Amino acid sequence: MQVNPKILKQKFEKSMPKYNENASVQREMAELLVNNLIKNAGQTFTQILELGSGTGLLTEFIADKLSYEHLTCNDIVEKSKSYLDKIVKNYTFIAGNSMKIKPSVHFDLIISNAMFQWFSSLPAALEYYSRMLNKNGVIAFSTFSGGNFNEIRSALGLSLDYLSVDGIKEALKKDFEPLELLAYTKTLDFASPLELLAHLKNTGVNSLSAKKMTFAEVKSFCDCIIENDGIAKLTYAPVIVIARKK
Ligand SMILES: C[S@@+](CC[C@H](N)C(=O)[O-])C[C@H]1O[C@@H](n2cnc3c(N)ncnc32)[C@H](O)[C@@H]1O
Questions:
Q1: 130: in domain
Q2: What is 174-210 written as a DSSP string?
């Protein structure tokens, strides 16, 4: 399923006030991403570009654990800057679609947490960012693979076209040498299907559709997703990728 960038922008902007308290999986991914980056490529980079910085969950780990000369952050939502201003000083913020930005410098590290799944073509995105990297530059990103939100796909038939881990490897092949790919799953339990829907809204994941669900759709979703004990489950399938430009 393709995503309209206008809808994505609106939904993420709306989710920001409640994002941090709901995004436990994304916070864990951000920490794993930075730890795996350090393990495979060290912690010192001259110029860093962070894509899809949002409320700054990953930015906090970058500021705490990496050493750099200059950090540039980007998000399609301009309001991201007001969150980042509280986390980092002396950084550059570029507002706009990350597939259209034209930074004036090249980078040693391009890093992004829980955003690359929104690209309609991962190979095209990787080619675009490979041109922004210096020789031997590193790309470190987390995304989601097939199996992500299987429960939603079954109940609503609504899903992004997630790549498999092999599909991600294939996309890297042209411009990058993979240093590490780590895939895992994490299932969250919600006390009711409505709590699960609120979680999706508060993390911006409801960007797939502009329409509000009708009462009948909400009821059919609840009937479909609820388990015998009343609990509703949501499975995340994150992938952490560290790769070096060839
Ligand atoms: C799930 S949030 C992740 C935010 C943050 N990286 C974190 O670790 O929590 C995805 C972010 O990517 C941004 N985003 C999605 N597509 C984008 C694009 N094409 N260009 C720039 N930002 C984008 C959204 O606005 C949102 O802030």
A1: yes
A2: TTEEEEEEEE--EEEEESSHHHHHHHHHHTTGGGG-S
